[in-house]
Amino acid sequence: MHPLICFQAMTCSIPLNGWAAGLRTFRWHAGIEFFQQFDNAEILDADVDVDARVEKSGHYIGVDLEVRGSVTVACDRCLEDLTLPVEVRPSFSVKSGASVSSGGEGKEGEREILLLDEADADLDLGQVIYDYVCLSLPMQRVHPDGACNPDTVRFLSLGPGNEEAVENSPFAALKGLFDDNNN
Ligand SMILES: [Zn+2]
Asked: Rounded to the nearest whole angstrom, what is the distance from the C-alpha of residue 117 to the centroid of ligand 1?
C-alpha cells in the first residue's frame, strides 16, 4: 500500500480506474499552498493532514475522510494570529453521472453523495476537503479571554463614544471653559 502524497500540485485526486475491488488508503498534507489555490485570504497558515479510505466494490465507491490539523486565521478581536484546530470526518458515496436517476447531490444514509463526471477517471477531493475545513471553523474567531494582544485591543477599541478617548480629547478642556463662562 503506497500512500499518494500531493505536496506540489496539491490536487488530492484518487485514480479510480486501474485497481480492482478492495480498500485503498491515501494521505495528503494540506499546507498554506493548498488554501491559496482557492484564493482564500482568511487562512494565513495551515498544517492539515488528510487520510482517505477508499472502498471499491462493484459499482460502489465509498470514501471516508479524516481531516485533522490546524489553520491560522486573524483574531476578530486583536487581529493577531489565532491557530484553530481542525478535525472533520466526512463520508461519501461516489456516483457517476449516469447512475444517478434524479435529484443529483444529496444524502444516502450517513453519507453525502459525490457526483463524478464519467469521463473523469480521477476523483479530485480538493474542493471537498477545502469546503469541509472552512465549514468547520467557528463563526467567531477570537483568542480565549485574556490571550489577546492588549495593545492592539486597546488601540482598536478607541473611537467615538469611548469614555477614555473623550477624556483625553482636546474638547474635554473646552467643555470646562464654556461651563465657566455660563457662571
Ligand atoms: Zn485576539
From this structure: 44
